[in-house]
What we know:
alpha+beta
Amino acid sequence: MKSIRNIAIIAHVDHGKTTLVDKIIQESNLLDERKEHKDLLLDSNDLERERGITILSKNVSVVYKDIKINIIDTPGHADFGGEVERVLKMADGVLLLVDAFEGAMPQTRFVLGKAISLGLKPIVVINKVDKENCKPDEVQEQIFDLMYNLGATEDQLDFPTVYGSAKQGWMSSEGWTEPTGTVKPLLDAIIEHIPEAPHFEGPLQMQITSLDYSNFVGRIAIGRVFRGVVHLGENVLLLRKEGAPKKSRVKELFVFTGLGKEKVEQVRSGDICAIVGLNDFEIGDTITDAEHPEALERIAIDEPTMSMLFTINNSPFFGKEGKYVTSRHLRDRLMKETEKNLALRVESTDTEDKFNVFGRGILHLSVLIETMRREGYELQVGKPQVLYKEIDGKKHEPYETLVIDVPEEYSGKVIELVSGRKGDLHIMEPKGDVMHLEFDITTRGLIGLRNSTLTATAGTAVMNHRFREYGIYKGEIPERNKGAIVSMEAGKVSAYSLDRLQDRGRFFVEPQEDIYIGQVIGENTRDKDITANLTKGKKITNMRASGTDDSMKIAPKVQFSLEEAMEYIRDDEYLEVTPLNLRMRKISFRA
């Protein structure tokens, strides 16, 4: 029997986690030398590659010195708390990866807090020591203070530290000044410090902590065997959250090898495996011995803090760009998402074509919407709504810790903007050539803040936030103070009209773009909504007027990302999402 180590990697977005796993895989000679090597092997989903973030957790396995190391990649963003929670249940230790310049970030703190409360042993990896102005020793002290504040035990505080540069492919346990040219010191540290996965004798117990799906065999249950041995062809009992226990059979059994899976006859406790043949299971269910059923404690998932209305696209351009446009398509897709996206909830409303979708934040919901539009769905979404709670007879709302790193000359503007949204400044300190600001702010105050902050700082601000707790309701917060410019005619945008109306505000459309009645085509300079006709062309005559035919100077249209558009819309507006376009429109408009 090979000795097994199960280790999860924790890191903030863009601190080099996926790059490090690439190097570990290359060190273990798992890839075929004859094939072209792609970087960021674990970021398999297009969205992950574009945004440079990990959304879904994944498993990789390497063998080093005849010891099997299961590496579990975890999402770095607090909006994917549902993913993080269950992933850590599979691990016996964690690699805490931090940037040698930026240090511990809010999202790192979020996941690390979960790992410490589960009693997992950490190894600290200080990455990017090749960066200019980096301060690895200070960062190491910072991590110690952070763990102490999170209530780490003495054993957890006595953590080993490894320094290196994943990009350059080296790690060292001796110090950060001498590159070693290999990541072996890190693998040695894992074998030395992470406890071996224990093998418990007795009746089978395994918890489903992740899902996979195949068009050929259907849903695949992934999890760690906690006790006993699971055999191919064995009859097992599925203990579910609701409903009676269900008899099932293990039709196929896989373990993770390298980047893929390998068919096996049996898997002992301590290892992570995938099972084909189970039906009607959910994440958190227990697979047990049919003769001695015994459930494991279910995984507690963070509650949603935000909701959005999803509905079918009923704009005049409906069905022009998407493949899936009906309410049945929308319902089936949302229900399918809840099977694997633990922190997401979907509720039907009093009408067939509208659904309330509850999630952990704007990013959590926007990733779902972006995935759906890439799959060919057309839909409309309403303004994100924060979820309130009644505690001791008082109205409570979610509060978040907001961290903004911004060049010093813009820090005053940022503080003014956040204070205007009833945010409280707690920490202000220089960090290299940027100012590091930490605020306490309500989730409501965050909606729309990113847009105005990026505008005020010429796009230089780096913003991160994480949910902290529910607190007392803070009263009214000022919303977007500019009205909308709404189209009163359908047709193609004329450059002549756009040029004539430029003094009215900023426009979201460009010449020759198709628009419809009720579409929000721009932002008024004042606080009232106005209507405009952008389709009117210049009257053509055969007379030339001297001096009036100067060339037009039209400002480029304002381009919104999906998150920016979700934060921008008002209560009386929908965001129309299609595979090719994002359009804002008034829900009910009379010209």
